[in-house]
Design a protein that fits this description.
With about 110 residues, this protein is mainly α. The protein is built from four helices and no strands.
């Protein structure tokens, strides 16, 4: 039980910081639906890496702990984005700063 709680705690910590990393990939011009899909996929991949990092690849044989960690990463990433990173304008600034700029036409 303790290892499951540790795994979930690690998942929440990863999820809390994940929107900052996701913002590097996101583009301001993308639709809201596309951004949500990309953020969810990145959160699930980060969750898998968190499970493997917290207990090695053998940890995947424990379905409940794996699912709980994946859910913790996803929930924490969405919650911290909506409650912290988006209102503070930090994530949108990262999106804009890391997006390629359209070149002005030569003329």
């Amino acid at each position: 039980m303790s290892s499951t709680i540790d795994s979930i705690t690690t998942g929440v910590q990863v999820g809390a910081l994940l929107p900052l990393l996701t913002a590097i990939v996101q583009r301001p011009a993308w639709s809201v639906k596309t951004k949500k899909i990309v953020a969810s996929v990145i959160a699930l991949v980060a969750g898998l890496v968190t499970v493997a990092g917290a207990g090695g690849w053998d940890r995947f044989q424990y379905g409940t702990a794996t699912f709980a960690t994946l859910a913790a990463v996803l929930a924490a990433s969405q919650a911290t984005y909506d409650l912290l990173w988006k209102p503070s304008k930090i994530a949108p600034m990262i999106e804009s700063a890391t997006s390629p700029r359209a070149e002005a036409p030569a003329g």
